[in-house]
Amino acid sequence: PAKYGVLLHKPLLEAFRDCFPKGVINIIYGSGRVLAGEIMKTGKIDAFAFIGTSNSASDIKKMHPRPHRLKAVLGLDAKNPAIILPDADLELTVKECITGSLSFNGQRCTALKIIFVHSSIANKFLELLAKGVNELKAGMPWEKGVQLTPMPEPEKMSFLTDILQDATSKGAKIINEGGGTVSQSFFKPAVLYPVNSSMKIYEVEQFGPVVPVISFDDIKIPLQYVYESSYGQQASIFGKNPDNIAHLIDQLVNQVSRINLNTQCQRGPDSFPFNGRKDSAEGTLSIADALKTFAIRTLVAAKGTEENKSLVKDILISRKSMFLNTDYIL
Questions:
Q1: Beta-strand runs (E) in 249-290
Q2: Average pLDDT, stretch 30-58?
Q3: CA 327/CA 330 separation, integer angstroms
Q4: Could you report the per-residue pLDDT of 58-102, keeping only the tens digit for each?
Q5: Which of 73, 80, 91, 101 is the most exposed place for a label (fewest CB within 10 A)?
Q6: How many helices (H) and strands (E) in the chain?
Q7: Residues 46 and 71 sit within 8 Å (Cβ to Cβ)
Q8: How far, rounded to the nearest angstrom, does the alpha carbon of residue 325 sit from its chain's CA centroid?
Q9: Judging by beta carbons within 10 Å of its beta carbon (0-12, 13-18, 19+), is residue 277 exposed, middle or buried?
Q10: DSSP of 206-226
Q11: Worst-scoring range by mean pLDDT, 27-31, 202-206, 313-317?
């Protein structure tokens, strides 16, 4: 189980205990760095499901002695952009960008990690964004109406402070009052503008409450960012003109695996495929795709001779085979 939030597995443990025979589900506690590699080296692992960084996933996969036997379903890094066009509904867009970038303190792979806004509406957007961010209620998770909470990782404060200092030293400003303030394990969200390619925040996945914003005049700027990015999970487009939206969809569809129209990037519902391109994922998760991951298609084939037809018919009618039969659940 995960290092942080391990107690959230308790209800799952009870469900596994009640629903499966003893020994079918096994939970091994300890450091992933120590345990995962040793388990993989045995060669007895057929499927590898992992949520983490692409570097960690690559290192663990390399340890399998028969990698061609290994099926992998990986949810990895992401730097999901929002692209805000001149005709976007600003009230809706600001609301979605705040939720998309800061729910769970921005600690979701599906969070909006960088925002591109057209220069004609940039000032108004930033004004509303800064105001909305500063109106978010901070406190403990169990308090009513709280939207910002302390961070779970002790080292996160210094990491976020470092990328803020790097950005401000290269021309960005923290535009919301008190943004980036640290109080023990609480980090107040910071809206950064203008961000450029010389800054760490431009490429690094912050996985925390830092919201970098870039203005553009030419739509090629955000598109080029997506093309050159190592990541390809999702993108959000905000606007009303169907011609412009259609053009962006066609440009992005081979770069990311989900395009969200006038809404934040997100996971779910579970019936939707959850995957990514480039370094963002491997394999696809959904209710149906998860089952397919553990299945290898097998068939029984024969030439259409009378003898073979009779043979197959006899097996079917007499129900001699559990596999070769017509007992389908429709």
A1: 258-261, 277-278, 281-282
A2: 91
A3: 9
A4: 999 999 999 899 999 999 999 999 999 999 999 999 999 999 999
A5: 91
A6: 10, 14
A7: yes
A8: 41
A9: middle
A10: --SSEEEEEEESSTHHHHHHH
A11: 27-31
Cα separation, 210 vs 219, in Å, equals 24
Q: Count other C-beta atoms under 10 Å from residue 51's C-beta.
A: 13
CA distance 7 to 76: 23
The residue ranges of DSSP E strands in the chain, in sequence order, are 47-51, 71-75, 80-84, 112-118, 173-174, 182-183, 186-187, 190-193, 210-216, 231-232, 234-238, 258-261, 277-278, 281-282
Alpha-carbon span 235 to 115, nearest angstrom: 10
Segment 148-174 shows an average pLDDT of 96
Higher per-residue pLDDT: 139 or 268: 139
Residue 34's pLDDT band, with cuts at 50, 70 and 90, is: confident
What is the rounded distance in angstroms from the CA atom of residue 171 to the CA atom of residue 199? 9
**What's the mean pLDDT when you consider all of the chain?**
94
Cβ proximity of 22 and 45 under 8 Å: no
Cβ atoms of 45 and 64 within 8 Å: the answer is yes
**Distance separating alpha carbons of residues 283 and 33, to the nearest angstrom:** 23
Averaged over 186-212, what is the pLDDT? 97
3-state secondary structure 89-115: CHHHHHHHHHHHHHHHHHCCCCCEEEE
pLDDT number for residue 329: 61
Q: What percent of the residues of the chain are helix, what percent strand, and what percent coil, each to the nearest 5?
A: 40, 20, 45
Contacts of 136 (CB under 8 A, 6+ apart): 98, 102, 147, 148, 189
Mean predicted confidence (pLDDT) in 194-210: 97
